[in-house]
């Protein structure tokens, strides 16, 4: 056949597309269960890290069962606990919820029982950074006011700048901050430029060169604490 | 075909491997792949992982295109190349997500960036389309390594001078600049972390290379 003719060209393109599409579809289907397990385990590891429990891929599922297990539930904007089992609550996809108005979202809460008997409430949060989504988990003490720990992750913030929100140094700053002021009004935690003193109850230091990501963290917290406000005030 | 008997690492083939490291370096001489060189060199670790991914994609896309080179209709050759590169990148991404989830999280957007890396399309078009599979593999390895070499050099200086640390895959952050130096008044240069300094660092490497090898200087 004429290798430069139209017929050959069309045939070549069609065969190539079919072969490539089949291959990719096959690989994607074959690997999906493993990928899904990885994603779930990574989510469990993130959740546990917010209460300072370090895990490895080998023991994450076991530790999650031990500390959280079935103590996962969904609350609504007005603070009502919804009828839902732990699996449904764990599977709530914040990237879908975030498109709904604040009042209609489902808000999962992870209740964590530590070794010393303390109860921590872990709230997932999600927002936008500079290049894409950022998300995290905020662990609150039983008073539902003082932050016990945080973890933040991101899809693709700039390494060395915005991506620093995923570092210990940034996350440790939130420890001990409170989200309600003395008269009980929600103030959240602000991410401020130029350094926040340790004793400032509602402020942490922003990342130099990562202004938009820092602001994204601030807005994300403000947004989600607002959504959880009714539950937290109970 | 006398070249069938050519030894695997004949001097001609070795040149394919070593030239891109020096006088034919894709970044400093051909000035290709600059975009990703700026994006991933703020830290050493993503630079190393990115280099390895590019080497992998470059070797295999070169090999596949070289095997198919006599069948590809010339009018749609760019589309064919693009399809193969994109499929390989998606394949790498899927496999990483399944078997090396942590690495895939670190790479995140960079994996997608490999598709847009002009070195890959450049090598397919300039080399693999007209050469046998084995030299094409060597060419892919050589150019990938040449790219990686510059990336690692740039990332080394940017991270060291910008943060005082070096991040290695599997080991994590290591503080290089001793505390004593900080106490003596040394301050990290935050500018090194920002993208413009990557361009300036690449510029300095080009300058050093050309002042040592006069053949590279463009007379016009």
Descriptive notes:
The complex is a heterodimer of chains A (234) and B (220). By secondary structure, chain A is an alpha+beta fold. Chain A has one domain (41-233). Chain A is built from six helices and seven strands. In chain A, the strands form two sheets. Chain A has a five-stranded antiparallel β-sheet with strand order 1-2-3-4-5, with helices on both faces. Chain A is globular and about 85 Å long. With 220 residues, chain B is mainly alpha-helical. Chain B has one domain (26-210). In chain B, a hairpin with a 3-residue loop joins β1 (165-168) and β2 (172-175). In chain B, α4 (77-99) crosses α5 (101-107). The N and C termini of chain B lie far apart (41 Å). The relative contact order of chain B is 0.17. Chain B: It catalyses: a ubiquinone + n Na(+)(in) + NADH + H(+) = a ubiquinol + n Na(+)(out) + NAD(+).
List the helices and strands and how they pair.
The complex is a heterodimer of chains A (234) and B (220).
Chain A: H1 6-49, H2 60-67, E1 72-75, H3 86-91, H4 94-97, E2 107-113, E3 119-128, E4 133-140, E5 147-154, H5 168-172, E6 190-192, E7 203-205, H6 211-233
Parallel strand pairs in A: 6-7
Antiparallel strand pairs in A: 1-2, 2-3, 3-4, 4-5
Helix pairs in contact in A: 1-2
Chain B: H1 11-18, H2 34-39, H3 44-68, H4 77-99, H5 101-107, H6 109-115, H7 118-126, H8 133-163, E1 165-168, E2 172-175, H9 179-183, H10 195-212
Antiparallel strand pairs in B: 1-2
Helix pairs in contact in B: 1-8, 3-4, 3-7, 3-8, 4-5, 4-6, 4-7, 8-10
Q: Give the percentage of residues in beta strands of chain B.
A: under 5%
Distance between the termini of chain A: 78 Å
- What's the β-strand tally of chain B? 2
* Rounded Rg of chain B: 19 Å
Main sheet of chain B?
Answer: 2 strands, antiparallel
Question: What pattern of helices and strands is seen along the backbone of chain B?
Answer: HHHHHHHHEEHH
The Cα radius of gyration of chain A reads 22 Å
Order of the strands making up the biggest sheet of chain B: 1-2
Mean pLDDT of chain B: 84
The portion of residues assigned to helices of chain B is 55-70%
Number of continuous helical runs of chain A: 6
Q: Can you list the strand order of the major beta sheet of chain A?
A: 1-2-3-4-5
Shape call of chain A = globular
Low-confidence stretches of chain A: none
**Secondary-structure class of chain A:** alpha+beta
Number of helices of chain B: 10
Q: What is the SS-derived class of chain B? A: mainly alpha
First-to-last CA distance of chain B:
41 Å
């Amino acid at each position: 056949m004429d290798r430069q003719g139209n017929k050959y060209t069309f045939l070549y393109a069609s065969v190539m597309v079919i072969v490539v599409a089949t291959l990719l579809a096959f690989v994607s289907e074959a690997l999906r269960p493993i990928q899904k397990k990885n994603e779930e385990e990574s989510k469990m590891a993130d959740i546990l890290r917010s209460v300072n429990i370090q895990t490895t891929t080998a023991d994450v599922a076991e530790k999650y069962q031990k500390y959280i297990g079935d103590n996962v539930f969904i609350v609504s904007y007005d603070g009502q606990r919804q009828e839902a089992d732990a699996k449904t609550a764990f599977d709530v996809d914040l990237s879908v919820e975030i498109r709904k108005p604040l009042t209609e979202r489902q808000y999962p809460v992870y209740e964590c029982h530590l070794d010393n008997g303390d109860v921590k409430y872990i709230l997932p949060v999600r927002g936008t950074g500079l290049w894409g989504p950022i998300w995290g988990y905020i662990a609150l003490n039983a008073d539902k006011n003082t932050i016990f720990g945080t973890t933040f992750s991101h899809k693709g913030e700039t390494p060395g700048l915005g991506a620093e929100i995923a570092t210990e140094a940034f996350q440790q700053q939130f420890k001990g901050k409170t989200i309600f002021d003395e008269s009980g009004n929600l103030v959240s935690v602000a991410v401020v430029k130029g350094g926040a003193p340790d004793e400032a109850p509602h402020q942490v230091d922003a990342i130099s060169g990562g202004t938009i990501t820092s602001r994204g963290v601030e807005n994300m917290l403000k947004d989600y604490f607002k959504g959880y406000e009714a539950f937290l005030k109970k | 075909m006398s070249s069938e008997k050519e030894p695997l690492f004949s001097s001609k083939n070795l040149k394919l491997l070593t030239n891109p490291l020096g006088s034919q370096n894709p970044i400093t001489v051909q000035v290709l792949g600059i975009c990703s060189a700026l994006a991933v060199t703020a830290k050493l670790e993503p630079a190393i992982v990115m280099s390895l991914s590019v080497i992998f994609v470059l070797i295999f896309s070169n090999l596949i295109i070289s095997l198919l080179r006599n069948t590809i209709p010339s009018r749609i050759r760019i589309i064919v190349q693009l399809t193969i590169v994109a499929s390989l990148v998606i394949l790498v991404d899927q496999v990483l997500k399944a078997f090396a989830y942590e690495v895939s999280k670190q790479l995140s957007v960079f994996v997608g960036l490999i598709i847009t890396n002009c070195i890959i399309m450049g090598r397919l078009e300039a080399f693999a389309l007209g050469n046998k599979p084995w030299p094409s593999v060597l060419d892919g390895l050589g150019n990938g390594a040449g790219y990686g070499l510059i990336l690692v050099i740039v990332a080394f200086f940017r991270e060291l001078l910008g943060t005082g640390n070096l991040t290695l895959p599997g080991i994590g952050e290591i503080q290089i600049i001793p505390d004593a130096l900080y106490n003596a008044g040394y301050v990290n240069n935050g500018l090194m972390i920002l993208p413009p300094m990557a361009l300036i660092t690449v510029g300095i490497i080009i300058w050093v290379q050309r002042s040592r090898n006069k053949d590279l200087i463009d007379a016009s």
